[in-house]
Amino acid sequence: MAEAFPSKRTNKRLVLTGYGGINKIKLQRKELSNVKNGHVLIKVEACSINNHDILARQGLNLSMTIRPPCVLGMEVAGTIDECGQGVSSFEVGDRVIGIAWSGGWSEYVSVALGWVFSMPNGMTFEEAAAIPISYLTAYFLLFEYGGLKEGKSILCHQAFDDVGLAVGQLCKTVPHVTLYGTCPHSWQSITRKHGYDYLVDSKSRDYVTDIRQFAPNGVDIVLDPYRGVDNRKNYFLTKRLGKHIMYGGANLRSAESRTWFGAARQWWNTFHQDLSTLITDCKMIGGVVLTHLVQDASGIDWVRTAMHDILKLYSEGVVRPRIDAMYPLEEFNIAMERIHSQRFIGKVILLPTRMPGRIEIIDPDLQQKEIPSSKFQQEDTRTSKEEELVKAKSREQSDESSGSDTKEICQTPTLSKVEGLFSGHETIVLDDN
Amino acid sequence: MAEAFPSKRTNKRLVLTGYGGINKIKLQRKELSNVKNGHVLIKVEACSINNHDILARQGLNLSMTIRPPCVLGMEVAGTIDECGQGVSSFEVGDRVIGIAWSGGWSEYVSVALGWVFSMPNGMTFEEAAAIPISYLTAYFLLFEYGGLKEGKSILCHQAFDDVGLAVGQLCKTVPHVTLYGTCPHSWQSITRKHGYDYLVDSKSRDYVTDIRQFAPNGVDIVLDPYRGVDNRKNYFLTKRLGKHIMYGGANLRSAESRTWFGAARQWWNTFHQDLSTLITDCKMIGGVVLTHLVQDASGIDWVRTAMHDILKLYSEGVVRPRIDAMYPLEEFNIAMERIHSQRFIGKVILLPTRMPGRIEIIDPDLQQKEIPSSKFQQEDTRTSKEEELVKAKSREQSDESSGSDTKEICQTPTLSKVEGLFSGHETIVLDDN
After folding, report:
1. Cα–Cα dist A50/A184, whole Å
2. What CA–CA distance (Å, rounded) separates A63 from B280?
3. Pairing state of beta strands A272-274 and B272-274?
4. HEC assignment per residue over A364-419
5. Could you please report the per-residue DSSP string of B196-219?
6. CATH tag for B146-293 (out of 3.40.190.10, 3.90.1150.10, 3.40.50.720, 2.30.30.60)
7. Tens digit of pLDDT per residue, chain B (433 long)?
8. Which residue of chain B comes nearest to A264, CA vs CA?
9. CB distance B246–A296 less than 8 Å?
10. How far apart are CA A64 and CA A292, in angstroms?
11. Structure ipTM
C-alpha cells in the first residue's frame, strides 16, 4: 500500500477495539498523519509484546489511561522514515529504538525525540525491540529501588520471562551477587545461563520452603511480579534491611480474558501493609509501574540515563535479550496465545514488515551462534494447522476492500483455532539446553 | 566506692523501676558481677541518652522487650576495666566504644566483644559515646535503606537532633546531594553548619507547603522520625522512584510521660499503606528500629561494617558529633527534661565518673575550637535554682546507708522542680551561630 500510493500513505496497525480477549484486536489500516514537531516517524521493523499490553487489552492496566479504540505496543525498532520540525539529531534511514508507550504495533509510529535512541552496531531489530521495557524495568528494580550492591542476594520470580532474564544479566554487573529465581523445571537449564545461581520450580512445590532452604534468613531484594497472596509470601521472604519490590502482574496474564471479579479478588488479596509492622520488621516495600514512573518530571531523564547504561552493556556483551519467538504482525493472535500459555522464555516479537503468513520461530541455539535473523525466514517449520490458518487469513485479506480510511484487514481467528494451532506450534520451538 | 572496697566493687547505675516519667528512674548501687566469657567490663566515662531510652522508659519501646527493673543506656565510652575469658583483642586500659544496647547508664557495664570498638586517636569520651546509635541510624537510613547516590535530594525531620546532625554530616560524603531539613527557626544557623542546604521551620508553618516550594516534585529520600498524621504528609512528599523511611518516634518523646491512649492514637494514625497505590505511585516505604535490625543473624556484621566506615569518617574529620550538654549521672533528671523539652541540638551525655553536683554545659563554640572537655568542668554556669537542686541531692545522698546489695542513692526531683530548673538552665547554653 505504502509503495502504491506514496502521496497518501497508510499505516497497518493492530487496533484494540475493546477490553477483553485476543479477538478484541483487529488489524486495520489508517492514513498516516503528518509527523509532529519534535517527533520522528519510525518505519517499524520489530515491536514487542509486553505484559503491560496484555493487561491493557484485558482492561486491567493500572491507571485505566488506555481506552479503546487505540493501538497498543510500547517499544519498537526500525529506521527513521521522516523527521518532524526541530529534529536535528537523527536523519532519515537511521536505525533507532523508539519507546512509543503506545501505538507501536504498527508499520509506522511517531515517537517524541526524547524517547528515541540510536541502535548500537551489531544489534538486530528484534533485539532492539526487546530491550527497553524489560531492561528498564530490571534496571530500575535492581539499581534504583533495590540499590543492588556487592554481596547481596536477590529473588526474582518468573525468571524465564523477559524481565526475569534481564534481571539475570544485569545482576552479573555487580560482584558476588547471589541470584535466586522461580522457574518451571523444564526451562531451568536455559534460564540458568542468564545469570541465575539457584532456581526452584514454583509450579510443583511451595517456593517459600525452597528459598528458605537456600537462604534461611531471607533474601535482600525480592522482585515480586505477582498480585494476591504471593505478596505476603514474598514479604515474608524479604530479609531484615531488605526490599520487597512489586511490579507487573504476571499472574494476571495467564488467562486470555479476565473477569472483573477475578481481577478484583487478586487486588483484594494484594495485602495492606501495617506500617508499624514494617518498621519493627526493618524492611522496605515498594512497587513500580514503568508507565507511571515516567510521568514524573524527571521521567525522561531517568529513562535516558538508564538506556545509556543498558546500551553500553549491550555493546559490552552483557545485555543480550533472548527472543522467544517472532511473528508477522498479522499473526499477533498466535503470539499472544503464546504469552497467555506462560510457555515462553524471553520476549515475543512482532515483525510488521514481514510477509503475512510466515510464522517466525526462533531457535535460541541458532540465535546464540549469531545467525542473521533472515536465516529464520528461510526455514519453514509450520505445522499443517498453521498452514491452514495462514491460508484462511490470506483469503480474508483478499476479500477486503482497501479504500476506506480505517480498514480491518483480517479477523482474529477464534480461540479454539488458536489453541489447536498452538499445541502443534509449541513443539517447533527448540530449547537451547 | 569502687576504690574504697576493691574486693567487693559496686556499680552505680540508673535503674528503671517502672514505666512512666522521669521519677521512675532511681540511682542505685549493685555489686559488680564477674565478667562473662567473651565480654569486656568497661569503666564508663560517658554514656548517652537516646530516643530509644526515652520511649523505653515510657513503656513505648516497639518490641516491649525492656521490662523494669532494668538499666537503660545503649552506648558507652570508657576504658576496659577487665577482660572476660577468650578476649585477646583488647587489654585493660584500652579506650573503647561499647554498644551495650541496655545497661549503659552505669559506672561499669559488661559488653560482648562483637559490640566493642577501639576509639580513634583524638576522640573524646563524650564524642565516642555520642557516635554509635545516631550515626548507625543515619548510616543505615541513608546508605542501606535510602541507597543514597550522587545528585539525590533528602528531607530529614528534626534536623537538630542527634540523628539529624549525623544525617547532615554523612550526606557530605556523597557529591551533589541536596539536603532539606525541618528545624525551629532559632536553631537553623547551627543546624545548617552540619550539612543542611534548606531548613524550614516546622513549628510555625506547614512543612509540606514549604518543602514543595523547594522541591515541587518531591524529595528522593524522606527520613521520617514521626508517628501519626505526619507519615501521610511525608509519603506525599516522597518523589516517584523515591523512598519514605520511618524510624524513631520523635513526636512521642515530647511529653515526659504518655498515656496509653495518646500512644494508641499515634499508632492508629500511623497509616496503613494500600500496596496497589504504592505500586502505581512508584514509591518505596520502609522503616527501621536499630534494636530490631541487629537481631538478624547478620546484624553484628552490618554494624561492624558500618562502624568501621563511621570511625574512618571521624578520622577524616567528617563525622563530628555535636554534644549538646553533659551531666553527671546523678543529674539524669535534668538531662532527660532537656530532651523532653525538645530544646537540644545534638546529643545529651551522662558522665558517670564526674563528681555529682556539677552540671556540665557545653558551649559548642568552644567545642568547635577543640578545647579539652576538662575545660568545661572549670566553668560554673549554674543558676541559683540548679545550685538548690544539687544541694538537695547531696543531702539525700548523705542520708542513705550504703550497705545493701541494691541501693537507691538519690530520689528523682519532682517534675515541677525540674521544670523550674530547666527554664533557668536553658539560658546557659550558648549557641554557636
Report:
1. 20
2. 8
3. antiparallel
4. HHHHHCCCCCHHHHHCCCCCHHHHHHHHHHHHHHHHCCCCCCCEEEECCCCHHHHH
5. -SEEE-TTTS-HHHHHHHH-TT-E
6. 3.40.50.720
7. 444 445 579 999 999 999 999 999 999 999 999 999 999 999 999 999 998 899 889 887 755 578 899 999 999 999 999 999 999 999 999 999 999 999 999 999 999 999 999 999 999 999 999 999 999 999 999 999 999 999 999 999 999 999 999 999 999 999 999 999 999 998 899 999 999 999 999 877 789 999 999 999 999 999 999 888 889 999 999 999 999 999 977 666 556 665 566 666 666 666 677 788 899 899 999 999 999 999 888 999 999 999 999 999 999 999 999 999 999 999 999 999 988 887 789 999 999 998 765 555 554 544 433 323 333 332 333 334 444 444 444 444 433 333 344 444 433 332 222 222 222 222 222 233 3
8. B276
9. no
10. 11
11. 0.80
CA torsion sign for B271, B276, B277, B282 is: positive
Beta-bridge partners for B238 = B219
Beta strand A284-288 with A238-247 is parallel
* DSSP secondary structure of A288-353: E-HHHHTTSTTHHHHHHHHHHHHHHHHHTT---PPEEEEEEGGGHHHHHHHHHTT--SBEEEEETT
Contact criterion met (CB below 8 Å) for A45 and A104: no
Interface of A with B (CB under 8 A): 62-63, 140, 144-147, 216-217, 231, 239-241, 243, 245-247, 267, 270-276, 278-289, 292-293, 295-299, 302
Cβ(B196)–Cβ(B185) under 8 Å? Answer: no
Task: Give the C-alpha separation, B367 to B320, whole Å.
Answer: 10
Q: Containing H/E element for B179?
A: strand B178-182
Minimal CA separation from B214 to chain A, in Å: 15
Place of cell 538506556: A307
Question: Would you state the cell numbers that stand for residue B406, as one nine-digit string?
Answer: 541494691
| CATH 3.40.50.720 intervals, chain B | 146-293
DSSP state of B44: E
B116: amino acid identity, one letter: V
Instruction: Tell me which chain A residue has its CA closest to the CA of residue B273.
Output: A273
- Residues in B whose CB is inside 8 Å of some CB of A read 62-63, 140, 144-147, 216-217, 231, 239-241, 243, 245-247, 267, 270-276, 278-289, 292-293, 295-299, 302
Domain A133-293 falls in which CATH fold?
Answer: Rossmann fold (3.40.50)
* Superfamily of domain covering A6-131+321-428: Medium-chain alcohol dehydrogenases, catalytic domain (3.90.180.10)
Residues of chain A with CATH 3.40.50.720: 133-293
Q: Out of B239, B247, B293, whose CB is closest to A296? A: B239
Helix, strand, or coil here: A185?
helix
Every domain of chain B with CATH number 3.90.180.10 lies at: 6-131+321-428
Give the cell for residue B348. Answer: 545529651
What is the amino acid identity at position B55?
L
Interchain contact, A275 vs B275, CB within 8 Å: no
